[in-house]
Amino acid sequence: FCPVEFKYEFESFYKNTLAAIKHFKENPTVEDEHGRDDYLFLSIIPWISFTGFTHAMNYTDPDSVPRITWGKYFKQDGKIFMPLSVQAHHALVDGRHTGLYFENFEKLATQLTKT
After folding, report:
1. Helix/strand/coil (H/E/C) assignment for every residue in 53-102
2. What's the pLDDT band for 7 if we cut at 50, 70, 90?
3. What's the burial of 104, exposed, middle or buried (CB within 10 Å: 0-12/13-18/19+)?
4. Catalytic residue among 23, 89, 90, 97
5. Could you tell me what percent of the chain has a pLDDT over 90?
6. Angle 94-99-100 (CA atoms, 0-180°, nearest 5)?
7. Does 90 participate in catalysis according to the annotation?
8. Res. 72 pLDDT band, cuts 50 70 90
9. What pLDDT score was predicted for residue 35?
10. Contacts of 97 (CB under 8 A, 6+ apart)
11. Coil, strand or helix at 43
12. pTM score, two decimals?
């Protein structure tokens, strides 16, 4: 578990990610940065496929951070599938926004398979 600041330039993002992983391996915690809600939780579980995923939540503090998880891809009927779960507070994220996210994710994933 470690926060990583997003950077559009991949090399900068990757460098920050490696530094954050190193830091949090040496100083492990499961605490969020208190008072921040300008980020999302992203989990990748490449060992399993799933049909649904629910993240742990802290119900003692207000919590509206979106949670996105994807898992192990698999082939079926000549197509490639990958489980993707989005958990978000409905008061902040409308179904339309979630649908657009899924459409865009699928479009980007399709482009990756063509390269």
Report:
1. CCCCCCCCCCCCCCEEEEECCEEECCEEECCEEEECCCCCCCHHHHHHHH
2. confident
3. exposed
4. 90
5. 38
6. 100
7. yes
8. very high
9. 67
10. none
11. strand
12. 0.72
Question: If you search the block for the tokens 């040496």, which residue do you land on?
Answer: 26
Place of tokens 């000549």: 78
Q: How confident is the model at residue 103 (pLDDT cuts 50, 70, 90)?
A: very high
Q: Which residues of 51-85 are buried (b: 16+ CB within 10 A; e: fewer)?
A: eebeeeeeeeeeeebbbbbbbeeeeeeeeeeebbb
Residue for token digits 């470690």?
2
Structure tokens at 8: 């559009």
Q: What domains, with CATH codes, occur in the chain?
A: 32-113 (3.30.559.10)
Residue written as token pair 């926060």: 3
Sorted by sequence, the CB contacts under 8 Å of residue 115 that are 6+ apart come out as none
